[in-house]
């Protein structure tokens, strides 16, 4: 079990590296992950969401109740900024329909699970991050199909009801089961050991979903890869900036501003990839755009969290020039209030 815990921690710390490695290997050996499609892909997504449920407790829902304004602002930013930003970019860049649909789908999905880790690494407000992710995930069965229908309905046929049931099956039910198990067994040592292993399993699951898309569509990547990456890069980066701007407008603390920036900018692109493969099979480039988002969001989130952390350390060193460098860095690790 100790080896499994160490492996899980390594995978969590090197998510972007592992996902990219799987994507590259799959590009040259597509048969390795050609089985990750259909029900298998939905099952893997369910395992990822189950791992999120295992981290939820009744305390998290008390946070939602105690901080309604913060959560409302966060949820509103999540489901207004990213969907309409994706629509705006698709229009401004004259994206092909398939890529536009994929970008819009990513924008309409809830916050990504790894955003909580990034908020912790950048000395953000972790309870706020968990609350935002939980709220946006619980709203996703309604908000995601509705926003996709509104913004992409003229580009492709959208079965909102089928999408709703897919999200219930692969997201809400696994999260609920994990939450129930954590509620009743959360204090048991064996259960806590399992909790520490699940993040690594989630990273493997995310890599498998990306690998499955690359296996099916990788040969087409270079046809529109530059366009896809440009769209994903702008969508993600502007999401961080606009999320931080919302925090500034609502006079949030530095920790909260960092958190809402990461929560808004990082989407559950794994869910988007699954939905694209399940409901937009006639538009394969949509799934490719979602898979690229999976990879890039992990990379950019790590970069942004690290930049915030280094900024804190340098500030601490300037304020205490007589202190050793190590002490300044340690002070920089103190969570901002």
From TrEMBL:
Q: Give the membrane topology, semicolon-separated if more than one.
A: Multi-pass membrane protein
Q: Which residues does the annotated region (Disordered) include? A: 318-337
Keywords, A to Z, come to:
Membrane, Transmembrane, Transmembrane helix
Membrane-spanning segments? 15-36, 42-59, 71-93, 99-122, 134-154, 160-185, 197-216, 222-247, 259-280, 286-309
Q: Which Gene3D superfamilies match?
A: 1.20.1530.20
Q: What is its main location?
A: membrane
Recorded GO cellular component terms are:
membrane
Q: Where in the cell is it found?
A: Membrane
Q: Does the keyword S-adenosyl-L-methionine apply?
A: no
Give a yes or no for keyword Nucleus in this entry: no
What's the protein here called?
Answer: Bile acid:Na+ symporter, BASS family
Species of origin: Lactonifactor longoviformis DSM 17459
């Amino acid at each position: 079990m100790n080896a499994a815990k160490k492996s899980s921690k390594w995978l969590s710390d090197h998510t972007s590296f592992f996902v990219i490695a799987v994507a590259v290997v799959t590009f040259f050996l597509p048969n390795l992950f050609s089985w990750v499609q259909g029900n298998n892909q939905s099952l893997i997504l369910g395992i990822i969401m189950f791992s999120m449920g295992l981290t939820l407790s009744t305390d998290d829902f008390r946070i939602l109740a105690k901080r309604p304004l913060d959560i409302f602002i966060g949820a509103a930013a999540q489901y207004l900024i990213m969907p309409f930003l994706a629509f705006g970019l698709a229009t401004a860049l004259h994206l092909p329909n398939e890529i536009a649909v994929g970008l819009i789908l990513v924008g309409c999905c809830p916050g990504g699970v790894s955003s909580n880790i990034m908020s912790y690494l950048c000395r953000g407000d972790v309870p706020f991050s968990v609350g935002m992710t939980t709220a946006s995930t619980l709203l996703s069965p309604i908000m995601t199909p509705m926003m996709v229908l509104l913004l992409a309905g003229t580009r492709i046929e959208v079965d909102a009801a089928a999408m709703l049931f897919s999200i219930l099956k692969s997201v809400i039910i696994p999260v609920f089961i994990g939450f129930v198990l954590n509620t009743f067994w959360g204090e048991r040592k064996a259960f806590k050991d399992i909790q520490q292993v699940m993040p690594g399993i989630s990273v493997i699951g995310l890599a498998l979903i990306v690998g499955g898309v690359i296996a099916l569509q990788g040969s087409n990547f270079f046809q529109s890869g530059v366009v896809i990456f440009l769209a994903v890069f702008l969508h993600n980066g502007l999401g961080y900036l606009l999320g931080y701007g919302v925090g500034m407008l609502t006079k949030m603390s530095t920790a909260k501003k960092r958190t809402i920036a990461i929560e808004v900018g990082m989407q559950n692109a794994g869910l988007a990839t699954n939905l694209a493969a399940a409901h937009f099979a006639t538009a394969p480039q949509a799934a490719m755009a979602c898979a690229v988002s999976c990879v890039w969001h992990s990379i950019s989130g790590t970069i942004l969290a690290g930049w915030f952390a280094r900024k804190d350390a340098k500030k601490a060193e300037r304020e205490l020039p007589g202190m050793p460098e190590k002490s300044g860095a340690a002070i920089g690790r103190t969570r901002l209030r």
